[in-house]
Write a structure and sequence with these properties.
- This protein has 8 helices and 26 strands.
- The protein has 4 domains: 3-41 and 195-342, Molybdenum Cofactor Biosythetic Enzyme, Chain A (3-Layer(aba) Sandwich); 44-65 and 159-192, Alpha-Beta Complex (Molybdopterin biosynthesis moea protein, domain 2), CATH 3.90.105.10; 71-155, Molybdopterin biosynthesis moea protein, domain 3 (Molybdopterin biosynthesis moeA protein, domain 3, Beta Complex); 353-425, Beta-clip (Beta Barrel), CATH 2.40.340.
- It is α/β, with parallel strands linked by helices.
- The strands form 7 sheets. A 6-stranded mixed sheet has the order 7-4-6-5-9-8, with no helix packed on it. It has a 6-stranded mixed sheet with strand order 16-13-17-21-20-18, with helices on both faces.
- The longest helix has 19 residues, at 324-342.
- The chain binds adenosine monophosphate and magnesium ion.
């Protein structure tokens, strides 16, 4: 009944010109957000394996040389180049040194030591000749030419990292190789930025949570699960505040508690100008709305503003659209970089590939479009893309089937088959 009254009222009321009715270009929206958010402070020390995906809070300075001693890069014979004449010689094999078992004796000029990969170079030797480059005759080895590359067979002390060198810089999002590198320094723990606390909630009277009775005309909430997952992947600490009804007072209470338990708040749904959409007005009442629409598809209704909170005077609030695809695309394309910035991460942008459209793409100029697509390898090493069927912003399957997003610039119109388009892949190697 109330909803009907509201509908009638809004139909007869003149539309009020408001600052959040303008469609911002994607770049404008991103710039406005990035200009607003600041990295959160503090750090914590975590054990090495807890640090995967976390943001390094301070430079990691090598306390030792890596490798800590000269060692062989191949299986071969270590010798002194002075024992050869014009790079040629017949040397006695006086023993074998395995990795971890250094040769303790001296090596005469006419002798050599058989060394395995990783074995320390014996003190009198300066060259390792690879096994396959020698002729072995009993206890003798014939070296016919120490080629220039023989020095490549010796790994110099500190050639990977030298004492005092910055092995990793603050702001790096730690990946598998980084954990390996820190491990190679013998370091048990590492200083990382605190996990960014991101409160999120879904709004909509029609929404139900897993386990609820699926009443008539209701749907199960999917946004909180994709949001939790995207936050988790980004290294944030998602705080799920559940479902909120399409009621301004309920939303006000939810936003207030959200900004008292988090560094950032993300909502989905209720962000347009419809009769049950209360996000923008509530945000404007409690704090400030910077913008409320972006010229993009999917994801046009999207609000950004801030509220006073327990941890900061200005907690950024992102009001994502309710449509599941739009919510995800807006998260990736509009707010992901801002969250990385708040996390203190110096992340490089995801590379935009240029690939060939394998079919025509409907597109209207005036807004940036993101279409879900599958990559195809073409003959000659080129890559092509095809959209994942219908592109409705409620068709979440179009995301699960996709390898990434085709990015069509705002000014662009319809794309013909064979034209190059931008493509952002969802996943990389690490
Ligand atoms: P809204 O942005 O609130 O106008 O919602 C747009 C569409 O997205 C509607 O069809 C909603 O039912 C749907 N929707 C909103 N929130 C969710 C959610 N959390 N999970 C799944 N669908 C949603
Ligand atoms: Mg709604």
């Amino acid at each position: 009944m109330n909803a009907q009254v509201d509908l009638v009222t809004s139909a007869v009321e003149p539309l009020v010109e408001s600052p959040f009715e303008r469609n911002l270009a994607v770049e404008e929206a991103r710039a406005a957000i990035l200009g607003f958010v600041r990295p959160i402070g503090g750090f914590e020390r975590v054990s090495l394996r807890q640090a995967l995906g976390r943001v390094l809070a301070e430079d990691v300075i090598a306390p030792i040389d890596v490798p800590a001693y000269e060692n062989s890069a191949v299986d071969g014979f270590a010798l002194s180049s002075e024992g050869l004449r014009d790079g040629v010689g017949m040397l006695r094999v006086i023993g074998t040194s395995l990795a971890g078992h250094p040769w303790a004796l001296s090596v005469p000029r006419d002798g050599c030591v058989r060394v395995m990969t990783g074995a320390a170079i014996p003190r009198d030797c300066d060259v390792v000749v690879a096994l396959e480059a020698c002729r072995i005759e009993g206890h003798q080895v014939f070296i016919d030419a120490v080629c220039a590359r023989s020095s490549d067979n010796v790994r110099r002390r500190g050639e990977d990292l030298s004492t005092g060198q910055a092995a990793l810089r603050a702001g790096k999002v730690l990946r598998p190789a980084d954990l390996g590198l820190i491990g190679s320094l013998g370091q048990a723990d590492v200083a990382v930025r605190p996990r960014l606390r991101v409160a999120f909630l879904s709004t909509g009277d029609e929404l139900r949570s897993i386990g609820d009775t699926p009443d008539e005309a209701c749907i199960f909430d999917s946004n909180r699960h994709s949001l939790w997952s995207m936050l988790e992947r980004l290294g944030c600490e998602g705080r799920d505040l559940g479902l909120v009804r399409d009621d301004p007072l309920a939303l006000e209470a939810a936003l207030t508690s959200a900004c008292n338990c988090a560094d950032v708040v993300i909502t989905t749904g209720g962000v347009g100008g419809g009769a049950a959409d209360h996000l923008r007005d509530t945000l404007a009442r409690l704090g400030k709305v910077t913008f409320g629409r972006i010229a993009m598809r999917p994801g046009r209704p999207m609000a950004f503003g801030h509220l006073h909170g327990k941890f900061s005077d200005s907690i950024p609030v992102f009001g994502l659209p309710g449509n599941p695809v739009a919510a995800m695309v807006a998260f990736y394309m509009i707010i992901r970089d801002a969250l990385l910035r708040m996390m203190g991460a110096h992340a490089r942008p995801v590379p935009l590939m240029r690939v060939k459209a394998l079919e025509p793409l409907a597109k209207r100029p005036g807004r940036t479009e993101f279409q879900r697509a599958v990559l195809e390898s073409l003959q000659g090493g080129e890559l092509g893309v095809r959209v994942t069927g219908r592109q409705g912003s409620g068709i979440l399957r179009s995301m699960t089937e996709a390898d990434g997003l085709i990015v069509l610039e705002a000014e662009r119109g319809r794309v013909e088959a064979g034209e190059l388009v931008g493509f952002l892949a969802f996943e990389g190697l690490v």
